[in-house]
Design a protein that fits this description.
The chain is α/β, with parallel strands linked by helices and 859 residues long. The protein contains 25 helices and 29 strands.
Length: 859
């Protein structure tokens, strides 16, 4: 009611709020409960579509008089009504006067009052209909009560401007969106779209609505959820949504519009909605005694088949659709299989939800009595075969109610069951995955189901398409190793032209560091610390399908080469006969890349990553161990925070004293590095932060050991970096939600993360080298070049990162527990640090020069 919706009652008895005071019958509709519960639900629902707009507006006007008494968020009217009801029930006649009762309430017409909005004009027309009322041209003109509430997301307000109530952008959602102009305001969504209204209004126009010709169909794989309705199609749909596929199911869609459900959906979803609207009109018409007059003429068999196939073509051709589920697609399965191959160049990937045919038939008739089946044969819900057969039999000009019927007609059981069994057997033969979730024991959750489907399909709709946007070639010569690298997005590319759009006030966070040096732990600390303060504030990249190793962003994109792809390129050069300097420069490859249109590249990258985030969150977090700080900074399309995690090179066990200096032995993907590679890589990555062209870069550098030992201080510092960056980038409305915990971050993290922290810090276990690391460490000390390098690193570099040996003694180059002194128990370097702030400032030129000198002298 508060939203302006007219109540519809299905059952025979309800306990309605204040029903002794509010005349619900005067502004609501009632279904015939007997009809509704006995298989004729659609008949009752159909009555609503025949209600005139005039009747709707009149009922809204009557209803509007009582809204304030159930709108407990605004004013005291709900409290007054409760008191009135209590006194009435108690029969108390001695109480003092209460505020005006419901029947005495007046409405403001602008400059005067009346009992109802309808009485405002007094024969003077629209000019006397203002205030609480608004003029409608229905039935020659009528003054109606204004329904002015908007949805703010989880609450409502009279206008979008009133949504925040001092809480900033976090309270501006739903019908509204946040704008950073004028210090931040909440305003109406641009291009607002009501999907439910679109799907259920003006159905009689669906066959006359023009169908746009297909000009540039996509060639991406399409997942086809071929299971009939009532076989757990919702579970399969949810699974493909979790996998990041842009999916549709009846009136639902997922992974579109960056999480904003009230923005107009992309063309693919609109094409799906138009298909559903067409199907709904067929459902309305499929009644034996339907009176199809001029007002609502039902289509012929020829019209039905032609329009349905054209609309299915539109969906299949759309680059914005990755997975289709539920009716009417399984009803046209044969056509979907063949046409997908013609349009997309490959057959769809079929996943099938199954059910026992007898059980399915019983439940389908009970739960969906208005479903459609073919009249007079045993093909059940195979509407494609049904309509084609009817045309071949010369029935193309007949109305569809002569060919199709609803499940609630007598004698449907046998036909439906035989048709369903045939469909299920046929689809099982072409499916890559099929399951009967009703008979699985134990039952499985959506995450496990998503993993099964992800493994079975064997694809990421981005990664395994065979298309990449980069070109990388390495050359080795007497003057050293050079990388010829280009990243370019074609103007007509699907990923560029249909890219998701980040919202205003969104921020990206990258966690950088080598494998097994604490990047995952840092990501979890950021995730839990921010989300524990506000659950919707941060979204960490999540791949339920198991496609991405450790859910790293590098594996969920094709814009730039992954570490494996760089390693493969490195092997190509290694096998050549050219002489030259070592190929240990993978961390620099992308720095010299020619990037054609960085913004387009950035948007394409965001579009590929978007399905693996909740993109309505303020912070979008991913971690990748390729140290591509400069590249990601260059192509950023929103304010971006880089968090770099350093770990002592020997304790982590990633240093191999026998790693060759030549060729690929020093490459990150091997996870077994030459020690000089560690120094070169960090010297280069830290120097990126000092570059003049990166003057506005937003970053924080910390050591893994400090994060484990001094969690509260490091996280407090890190949140301070976040807060100061937000101030610079106009995110002041988020400051109240980031980093104001005075009791320390270790008290706000989850139990799961607490156990993880205990694992990392328990008895210094992860601060001490394991057996493999000790073997490598001792091996390094036995080799002159490696030993010399490690000694210089221990003497001149590592202490500047705060490293000390056990018991806070001078750092040793021999194997043992490595810790960080309390003086360095904070963020080591940052873009927000000043001498008086307590935060680390930029890496010093002296430190970077020392690291480069050591590497050069010992290489």
């Amino acid at each position: 009611m508060i939203a302006g919706c007219i109540p519809v009652f299905v059952g025979s008895k309800y306990d309605k709020p204040f029903e002794d005071m509010i005349p619900y019958d005067s502004f609501s509709y009632h279904f015939n409960g007997t009809n509704y519960m006995n298989g004729n639900a659609q008949m009752e629902v159909d009555k609503l579509w025949n209600v005139s707009q005039e009747d709707i507006e009149v009922k809204r006007d009557k209803m509007a008089r009582y809204i304030r008494f159930i709108d407990w968020r605004h004013g005291n009217s709900t409290f007054e009504a409760i008191l009135e009801s209590m006194f009435e029930e108690a029969g108390d006649k001695t109480r003092g006067p209460l505020p005006k009762t419901i029947t005495e309430t007046k409405v403001s017409c602008g400059s005067h009052e009346a009992s109802t909005c309808a009485e405002c004009p007094q024969g003077n027309g629209a000019g006397w209909c203002n205030g609480d009322c608004e003029w409608s041209n229905v039935n020659g003109g009528v003054c109606l009560r204004k329904i002015s509430h908007v949805s703010c997301g989880s609450h409502e307000a009279s206008t979008c401007a009133e949504c925040p109530q001092g809480n900033g952008a976090g309270w501006c959602n739903g019908d509204c969106e946040w704008s950073s102009e004028n210090g931040g305001v909440c305003q109406s969504q641009t291009g607002s779209f009501n999907a439910l209204k679109y799907l259920n209004s003006n159905l009689k126009s669906t066959f006359e609505q023009p169908i746009q010709p297909i000009t540039s169909p996509t060639h991406k794989p399409l997942i086809f959820g071929a299971g009939e309705g009532t076989t757990a199609t919702h579970a399969i749909y949810d699974a493909t949504c979790k996998l990041g596929f842009r999916s549709v199911h009846w009136e639902k869609s997922c992974n579109h519009n960056a999480g904003h459900s009230n923005k107009k959906p992309p063309p693919g979803v609109l094409a799906h909605f138009d298909l559903i609207r067409t199907y709904k009109r067929i459902m309305v018409c499929a009644t034996p005694d339907w009176n199809y007059g001029e007002e609502y003429e039902c289509p012929t068999v020829n019209q039905t088949l032609h329009v349905m196939l054209d609309r299915i073509n539109q969906v299949i051709a759309s680059p914005g659709i990755d997975a289709i589920h539920d009716a009417p697609y399984p009803n046209f399965a044969e056509y979907v299989l063949n046409t997908t191959k013609k349009i997309r160049g490959r057959k769809p990937i079929v996943v099938l939800s199954e059910r026992n045919p007898q059980d399915w038939t019983k439940r389908r008739i009970q739960q969906h009595p208005s479903g459609l089946a073919c009249r007079g044969n045993d093909i059940g819900t195979n509407l494609y075969r049904c309509l084609k057969s009817a045309i071949q039999a010369g029935l193309g000009s007949e109305r569809i109610n002569k060919i199709l019927y609803k499940f609630n007609e007598p004698g449907t059981d046998t036909n439906l069951m035989k048709g369903f069994e045939l469909h299920q057997n046929n689809m099982r033969k072409v499916s890559v995955y099929h399951t009967n979730l009703f008979e699985r024991n134990p039952r499985i959750g959506s995450s496990k189901l998503a993993k099964e489907i992800g493994y079975a399909t064997g694809i990421s709709f981005r990664r395994n398409l065979g298309k990449k946007y980069w070109d990388l070639s390495l050359k080795k010569g007497n003057d050293g190793t050079t990388a010829d690298c280009t990243v370019s997005i074609p103007n007509d590319d699907d990923d560029a032209s249909n890219s998701a759009t980040p919202s205003a006030g969104q921020y990206m966070v990258h966690v950088h560091g080598f494998h097994h040096t604490g990047t995952g732990f840092t990501r979890h600390m950021l995730d839990k610390s921010l989300s524990s303060l506000s659950p919707e504030l941060l979204s960490s990249m999540h791949d339920s399908g198991g496609i991405a190793s450790q859910e790293e962003g590098q594996h969920l994109q094709s814009v730039y080469p992954t570490d494996r792809q760089r390693y493969e390129k490195c092997e190509e050069v290694e096998s050549s006969s050219l002489d030259g300097k070592p190929l240990r420069m993978s961390y620099q490859y992308l720095d010299s890349c020619k990037i054609n249109s960085p913004e387009t590249v950035g948007r394409t990258l965001f579009n590929q990553w978007a399905p693996f985030w909740n993109t309505s969150a303020s912070f979008l977090l991913q971690k990748t161990p390729t140290l591509d700080v400069q590249f990601l900074e260059t192509v950023k399309i929103m304010p971006t925070l880089h968090v770099l995690v350093i770990r002592h090179p020997m304790v982590s066990g990633i240093i191999d004293p026998h790693a060759t200096l030549e060729g690929c032995g020093g490459f990150a993907y091997s996870r077994s590095l030459d020690i000089s590679y560690w120094t070169e890589a960090w010297a280069h990555s830290l120097s990126v932060l000092n570059r003049e062209k990166n003057e506005d870069i937003w970053y924080a550098v910390l050591t893994y050991e400090a994060l484990v030992q001094h969690t509260d201080q490091v996280m407090t510092d890190l949140m301070e970096v976040v807060k100061r960056g937000l101030k610079r980038y106009g995110g002041g409305h988020l400051l109240d939600q980031t980093g104001n915990e005075t009791d320390g971050y270790s008290k706000v993290i989850s139990n799961t993360l607490r156990r993880r922290l205990e694992y990392h810090s328990n008895s210094g276990s992860t601060l001490s080298p394991n057996e493999e690391a000790i073997t490598k460490w001792n091996g390094c000390l036995k080799l002159p070049r490696c030993s010399t390098f490690l000694n210089q690193l221990t003497l001149d570099v590592l202490p500047k990162f705060g490293y000390v040996s056990a018991n806070n003694t001078t750092l040793s180059s021999k194997p043992g527990t490595v810790m960080v002194s309390e003086d360095f128990g904070h963020v080591l370097f940052s873009s927000e640090g000043k001498a008086s702030s307590g935060l680390g400032d930029k890496p010093s030129i002296d430190l970077l020069s020392t690291m480069r000198k050591i590497s050069k002298d010992t290489s």
